[in-house]
Fold this sequence. Notes:
By secondary structure, the chain is α/β, with parallel strands linked by helices. It has helices at 41-45, 57-60, 63-70, 84-94, 103-109, 166-172, 191-197, 202-209, 228-238, and strands at residues 2-5, 22-24, 28-30, 49-51, 79-82, 115-118, 125-127, 130-136, 144-150, 153-158, 177-183, 217-221, 243-245, 251-253.
Amino acid sequence: MRxxxxxxxxxxxxxxxxxIAALVNDSLAIDAGTIGMLWPFExxxxxxxxxxxxxxxxxxxSLPLFLDSIYQPGPTCPAVYAxxxxxxxxxxxxxxxRLWPDFIRxxxxxxxxxxxxxxxxxxxxxxxxMTVTPVAxxxxxxTMGFVVQEENxxxxxxxxxxxxxxxxxxxxxxxNLKAVFLECSFPDSHRWLADKSGHLxxxxxxxxxxxxxxxxxxxxxxxKPCFFNQITDDLNRLQLPNVEIGVPGQCxxx
Length: 254
C-alpha cells in the first residue's frame, strides 16, 4: 500500500500542512483539503474515491475545485463517501448554489459530477482490491476514522479526535496492521484547547500509541502550524518507538 500526505503549500514544499488530504495507491483520497490543487493534473484524474472524515473546512476545502476541474460529460465520476452529518453539510452548506454550484442536484439531472455515498460506522465499503471501514471518532462534529485494508496490509487513519476508544478496539482486531496515521494538533501546554476543540496533544497521543504493537509505525499528522515546533519537541521528549512526524509529499509504502 502506497500513501502520500498531499502537500498544502505553494512554491517550496514545507513540513507543515494547512489543509489535510492523503492519497492511497493514487486512486483513493482520505479527505479533500488539498486534492483539488494536486499537480500534475493527471494525478487528480486518477482519484476515483474520496472518503471524508468530517465537514471541517481544512478537510473538504478543495473538494468543489477537484470535482469541477476533473468533470467530463458522461457516466463516470468520483464517488464521495461521508457520514450523514457531513453529507448534510455538503448538501446545505457547500453545494447550495451560493457557496458553489449544486453539483449534487446537477448530478441527478445530467452527467454526474459525483456519486455521494453515506457511510455507517463499522460498515465496510468494498472497493476493487481494497476495503475501507469507517469508525466513529470523538470530535466537535461527527467524524470518522478509517481502516484501509488490502490482502496483506492494513493502515489506520485516525483523524480529528479527542479521547476515543472504539477505533483502537477495532484496530486491535485488524490483521497485518502496518501503520496508523494519527493526529496530534496541540502541544501539551494547550491541552485545554485540545480538549475543547476535540483534538489530541502529545500526552494523549502517547496513551494510544502505547496500545499498539511495537511493529506498527505511527505517522503524526494534523500538527497546527503555529504550534509545530512545540508539538514536535513534546513528542521527542516522550521517546515513543516507531513514531515519526508526517512529511507532506513523502511516499510511505507498507
